[in-house]
Design goal:
The chain is an alpha+beta fold. The protein has 3 helices and 4 strands. The chain is globular, with a radius of gyration of 13 Å. Pfam families: CRS1_YhbY.
């Protein structure tokens, strides 16, 4: 689990990032979850955009993605979800204690 201080740090790191995945009408699919997991391994921190035509609640989408990828939900703001997962091989982000 991330502490409040760590989440604040990650929100600041994610601020300049652009969403690289979009969840649309089909909701969260297994293929999407696999791609996001692979991207998290490479980047550790990323944004996912929830489109207007998505039938599920954005918080539900965030929970599904977190459960499917083993990531932490840093923040859900507007229609954007920020996810973090520590990389096994490409560790770049050093979290504050």
């Amino acid at each position: 689990m991330l502490t409040g201080k760590q989440k604040r740090f990650l929100r600041a790191q994610a601020h300049h990032l652009k969403p690289i995945f979009q969840v649309g009408k089909g909701g969260v699919t297994e293929a999407m979850t696999e791609q996001i997991a692979a991207a998290l391994e490479a980047r550790e921190l990323l944004k996912v955009s929830v489109l207007q035509n998505c039938e599920e609640d954005r918080h539900a989408v965030a929970e599904q993605l977190a459960a499917g990828t083993g990531a932490e939900v840093v923040q859900v703001i507007g229609n954007t979800i920020v996810l973090y997962k520590e990389s096994k091989e490409h560790k770049q982000i050093v979290l504050p204690d």
